[in-house]
Design goal:
By secondary structure, this protein is an alpha/beta fold. The protein is built from 13 helices and 15 strands. The structure holds pyridoxal-5'-phosphate.
Length: 377
Amino acid sequence: MNKRIWLSLAHMGGREQDFIKEAFDTNWVVPLGPNVNGFEHDLEQFLGKNKYVVALSAGTAALHLGLVMLGVKAGDEVICQSFTFSASANPILYQGATPIFVDSEKDTWNMDPQLLEKAIVDRKAQTGKYPKAIIPVHLYGMPAKMTEIMEIATKYNIPILEDAAEALGSQLNGLKCGTFGQFGALSFNGNKMITTSGGGALVCSTEEQKRRVMFYATQAREPFPYYQHEVIGYNYRLSNICAGIGRGQMLVLESHVARRRQIHDLYVRLLSGVKGITVKCNSNENTQSNFWLTCILVESTICGFTANDLRIHLEKEDIESRLLWKPMHLQPVFQTSPSYTNGVSEELFSKGLCLPSGSILTDEDVERVVLAIKSLL
Ligand SMILES: *Cc1c(COP(=O)(O)O)cnc(C)c1O
């Protein structure tokens, strides 16, 4: 019996338990503490660009507090990439605001800058107001066209909350994903680039923003000798135990990114020449995906099977794969939200499949996946 090959497993580096043990030994088994500060420091060093990082309980919490910081409230509209995981959009609803979905372009599969501008202009015409924020996503680790997106955001003076949950370690023009927007959200969920078992972080542009995010994340306690509250707060801080896992993971982040890129290269090599299957690659030399997940497009008219046929076939071989994200503008829960579409994400959703890509995989695992794919031809 072959062992099961998973899509993206947590991959410990070895030092994680040392940091956890230290937390136990010093009785810092609470939210906040030396591991939280250390983890935030490590992330700030890694990201560069003088950013300020707040460790939080989830990437979703980071996106939510990003919206809170940008003053998004009931009645506002927020533009969000349609081709993404629902966690990019849900926090807009937590704030009582309305998501406006914008489709993708074909190069990076992320927010189409032209369609973004069209949406901004049209929202202004329809509602008399500009959207309050823009949430582009670096899907599967592939950097979005941030230069173009930021140019438009600047033109209309709309802040960017960057969803970099899948893109830790990805780069565009030499800069790390998560550092482009006024705010950036990272995720340390179990299947992301690094894990804290569950967690996230909000990347801020100023120290004052960082202090304010920490204030919101710890129940918005005003500086009084008693508990005084003047705004609504949240319980969103990362625990010192989870942050210990994060510190250990930061020691292996670079090598995990390198390994995912290697795995992607191996898929490209082994699948080259297979008719009807194309592996998604960086669209130019200034774009460096972390290849969190290697994705393929399946042209059923050429190879005779669909992406879902292939998924079922791989499952029989004990290989986990996953269809690409179903666009938000097709989700029943967002039925009433306005959307600006061009057919790109719908086509990707119908043809795309994510292949096992975890840094824990061996070359032999990847070869087994490719053999399984070829056996369906
Ligand atoms: C994982 C993910 C999130 C949410 O992160 P959590 O830590 O799971 O809350 C947000 N956006 C995208 C695109 C994601 O993939």
